[in-house]
Amino acid sequence: MSRKRVGEQDREILRLAVPAFVALVSEPLMLLADSAIVGHLGTPQLAALGIAGTILQTLVGICVFLAYGTTSAVARRIGAGDHKGALAQGIDGLWLALLLGVVLAAAGALLAPQAIGAFNPSPDVAAHAVTYLRISCIGIPSMLLLLAATGVLRGLQDTKTPMVVAITANLANVVLNVVFVYGLRLDIAGSALGTALAQTGAGVALVAVVVRGARRDGAKLRPDRPGILASAQMGVPLVVRTLTLRAAIILLTFVATALGTTSVAAHQVAFTLWNFLALALDAIAIAAQALTGRALGAGDVAGTRSITRRMMWWGLYSGLVCGLALWGLHPLYVHWFSADPEVQRTLAAIILVAAVWQPLNGVVFVLDGVLIGAGDGRYLAVAGLIAFALYVPLALSVLWFDGGVVALWWAFGGFMLLRLLTLLTRERRDTWLVTGATR
Questions:
Q1: Contact, 199 vs 143, CB < 8 A?
Q2: CA–CA dist 239, 256 (Å, integer)
């Protein structure tokens, strides 16, 4: 391949990935701000944030297909030249997001005590966690609308608008948290309320952008039952794929909780940092979704292959940089999250393990994005089930052999290695390279 072509690919990847990076890190930045603010309220509050945050992220995370599936479907239609059809499909995704959001918010608020109790935390941790989770559920409908609207814009090859909204929401979150937690002295409830309000504002803003675009192109705005059902059906394999990821994370938090309050507190901060870097690396995967969908929609198989290989190198190098930064800077930030010396020591040990796995993570996220962009959800679902089934005994062995929370994070790295192997196996074949406006 010529240097000119490589340069063009790099510029296209960066055009989509850099704004996507800023938008993607919005949520973990909110959680990092929450962790820093709540952590100084006390170790029980920080542990509660870890448990409640895991449940909330699971409720929202299982609906990530609203962004990923929509990006792929819209990008394919853009590649095929059907702009109006792309926006119509995006509107169907928004309606589906609203319906799911209302249902999940109600279920989360109602079943909060049972969900928190499943982690078997101490009574003081449980009380704080239930409070945080119930208040946070208010923002779930807006969070899902934000996912769907972001997916539409990514499919339209626009990652700058979500970036602007993400920056605004993140700044609002920090201000609201400080005011509610320390100004109004609402404790952990203030953190949950501030984050929910910031996310709601972001969701409303992006939905307004999509609706304005649909009106301009003449796409209908009213609910379309067949379209909504089609969007839901398209998302089923991605839901299964996401559930395997969320199940792995829940198991990670469950085992960390069983290891004690200090372990789960350190794990909460470490996982928030890991999630921040994961979404940073996922920016290239977002570019992969949009570019893969567009290329296959236009029938360009050779171009799809070429840009996939280029993005894999981007993922590897980006992961290496993230790993070096995570470990190299840890003396500067560990104390931000807790004044407890034992939590700080445990967190530093976990961070070293997390840093080692970052280059591998970068390639995993890129390949995941490529196959999502290709609409290869069924394979991703099966691959996720296989990786999770093999990961379960790895995680539980930490409890069986009293390995500690650091050993638990080595086991979690094993889960990512299993994902890499299944994704590389698929990428080397041609089955996923299906062209056309729809798969």
A1: yes
A2: 25
CA distances to 137, 261, 300, 401 from 122, in Å: 22, 8, 56, 23
Cβ neighbours, 10 Å, residue 233: 9
Rounded to a whole number of angstroms, the distance between the first and last alpha carbons of the chain is 28
Dihedral of the alpha carbons of 19, 73, 285, 81, in degrees to the nearest 10: -60
Instruction: Dump pLDDT digits (tens) for 300-356.
Output: 888 889 889 999 999 999 999 999 998 888 778 777 777 778 778 888 888 888 999
The number of angstroms, rounded, from the C-alpha of 93 to the middle of its chain's C-alpha atoms is 18
DSSP secondary structure code for residue 295 in this structure: H
How many residues does this entry show for the chain? Answer: 439
Phi, psi dihedral angles at 243 (to 5 degrees): -60, -35
Kind and range of the H or E run holding 402:
none
- Integer CA distances (angstroms), 426 to 64, 314, 378, 382, 386, in order: 22, 19, 12, 11, 14
Q: How far apart are CA 123 and CA 318, in angstroms?
A: 42
User: CA 77, CA 93: separation in Å to the nearest integer?
Assistant: 15
